[in-house]
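INFO batch 0412 | record 1 of 1 | parsing
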Amino acid sequence: MNIRHHGSRGLLAATLLASSIVLANAAAPASNAKALQLAKTYTVTSAPIEPLHLDKPVLPDLTGYTAEAVQARIDRRQAGKVQVRRMLQEDTLKEFIGGDNKMAEWVAHQHDIPQAIFIEDGHVNLKDLSRSLPKQYFRETEPGVFLARLPIVVGRKGILEIDKQTRELRLSQEGGSFLVNDGKLFVTDTRVTAWREKDNGPATFRSPKEFRPFLLSWGGTETYVVNSRMASFGYAKSKSYGVSISQYTPDMAKTMNRSEPTGWIIGSEFSDMWYGFYCFETRDFVLKGNTYRDNIIYGIDPHDRSHRLIIAENTVHGTKKKHGIIISREVNDSWIINNRIYDNKLSGVVIDRNSVNNLIAYNEIYRNHTDGITLYESGDNLIWDNRVINNRRHGIRVRNSVNIRLYENIAMANGLMGVYGHIKDLTDTDRDIALDPFDTKVSLTLVGGELAANGRGPLSIDSPLSVALYRVSMHAPSNPNGISFSGVLGEHEDEILDLMVRQRKAVLINPDERQP
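INFO prediction complete | emitting tokens
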């Protein structure tokens, strides 16, 4: 299988389509889809092996994402301009100053008409800021430690560098400080902390509604964070989640001629964040070799229409409310590879809401408090050679998703099923069906790997459109009577085991086309 960083969608889709020919040929016509999902009887047959073969996926080349490469991108030739001015009438701040009396937040912090620090027309570092600004707005409290008491805005042609000469940048919670990037931002070999001056310490989480400083990068920007630590950012307000990368609204993006934002975050640590990372309509962003620990809602959360993301070699653990990594709403053509994801409150990895053509490979996913890997309403994804072990519920759970390829995975010692596929009518739930159209269908291909010692059994699939099984190792059953299946597979257990284990053939399970 060939998956490349640029122009990958067609290639990945073609590969997945080729591998599904055996399923498509065996299924009933599309007009019978509703009957298929409600089928009561199924047939079990042997299937040709060759269409199920996939080569190992070719991973994106990560060697170029280095600290040295980031340094080479910093243009220090022109000194920037620094000024303090009112936050009103600034496009970059409309999200925070607009309707619904949003400005009151900053009036309460500043006790005056709100102001911000603006960096424009060139390169600025924190020493430059401390020399340029009144001490009540920005000052060096001890050698290499800076306190910002106003928001800092990097203008469209501005470049802010926070480098190793800075021991720590502290963004004052009481002062209402935060960082907005509308140009280029470089954070390297340092620490940036949301700071509670009253406690002379980090603004640790207390309430979802309590303001905490945050970082937001808008459309057209580049953001680089390297070998740094960020802590205690974010709260439950739009674009204020922690570290957020977001396109402007469509009208503003068009008017301002702003492309999708991008950047790299490598070798860094994020803790006590509302979200460790969030993005919206972002392209080619790289998260490599970071640690996301003890964050509140999510560790990593790419969102709407982001694409070609690389999430690689990260450690994500201790998320307090929800998932370790979740991609949701048309996050496509991306890679979640070689990560360690454990001890998160819900699932380790979630692929959600029509997110397609993604590769989830070579991850270690263990001790999460619900599923290891969860796919919700997201077809055409490849799950390759993951270790999904000792999660409290299912190892891999697939809901309302078709053409899901599970290759060479190990699902072991999970509380319920090793692999669980099912359909669910979500009409009466709080999910927005108008925005998220989907079919109540599930189809799976399982090739290779191992399903062992899972609490309720190796495999259960309810009302599938089709299932293909080949070369799947199943042993160490929790059931004292031996290997047993649930759902549709349980009704044909003897036939399936005879074909797959004794005859070593591929097995195809389809609804019986003869049924009314």
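INFO post-check: The first strand starts at residue 42 and ends at 47.
INFO record closed
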